[in-house]
Amino acid sequence: MATLTSLTSNANPNKSFEVLPNPGDSLSSLSFSPKSNLLVATSWDNQVRCWEIGNGNSQPKASISHDQPVLCSAWKDDGTTVFSGGCDKQVKMWPLLSGGQAQTVAMHDAPVKEVAWISQMNLLVSGSWDKTLRYWDTRQANPAHVQQLPDRCYALAVNYPLMIVGTADRNIVIFNLQNPQTEFKRIQSPLKYQTRCVAAFPDQQGFLVGSIEGRVGVHHIDDSQQSKNFTFKCHREGNDIFSVNSLNFHPVHHTFATAGSDGAFNFWDKDSKQRLKAFSRCPQPIPCSSFNNDGSIFAYGVCYDWSRGAENHNPANAKTSIYLHSPQEAEVKGKPRIATGRK
Predict the structure, then answer these.
(1) Which residues pair with 197 in a beta bridge?
(2) Looking at the 3D structure of the chain, how many domains does it have?
(3) Name one GO biological process term (predicted).
């Protein structure tokens, strides 16, 4: 028994609550409902699963299937409907709360990597490896607008009117959604290697970008604020460098979380440039994470993320887990800037 206990504690070093049953394959996204503690996970076993989280337990609610691995998910702003996209080149709309059937509402010419609902426009946006963004009125078969991207879409974040798109070849394309048919600005990522994730500032003044080299860039859009930009290292251990896979702003305190292929997650305050809390490393990578709508739950997935290839995949240890951490205020509340004598 002792061995079993120690194995269990090592698998979950932060003593987080585990969501059961476990998904059957590696996770690609986690999304909390904007209105409730419904959690959706997409995975490489072609499934979109939903759990109801509450009072120290998790209840599997429902699931739908795609024809191929699912890569992304997003909720409608009213919390009734889930969108999911993936390698079958389509986006499905799942009226989860009404118990309705999922239907295809968007199509691309290559896998769909990112999807987001823009409530102010009543449109869905999908980003694909076919090098396009497509805006959809979900009642129409054809896209409302197709926007060419400089390369494959790898990451996307919306905080209206700001939309940030990270593509292959380190392009960051910035859109003002009040004029979505033209790029507002295009820059090279402040990081030297491939973009993995982006997050829009809560005040819409800029964005975070994470890359495969264990570094995050904090970038402001307005030219007058460029002096505030900086990058920092994270998810590194000695000479080992791990990908930053996920960036999430806390909905109340506006601090943020990073999660990486080293199996660790951290909470940060960009304004005081401090790490607020470092958590123990899990035995496998963390490919995705999400705060719930009031920031009282941080969900993170632990599973093989294929960043080190098929040859390093060990089916014996390849359990996929979803964990829930309840952040304490000290872990997520920003700290005052350390005075330097300058404003």
Answers:
(1) 210
(2) 1
(3) RNA export from nucleus
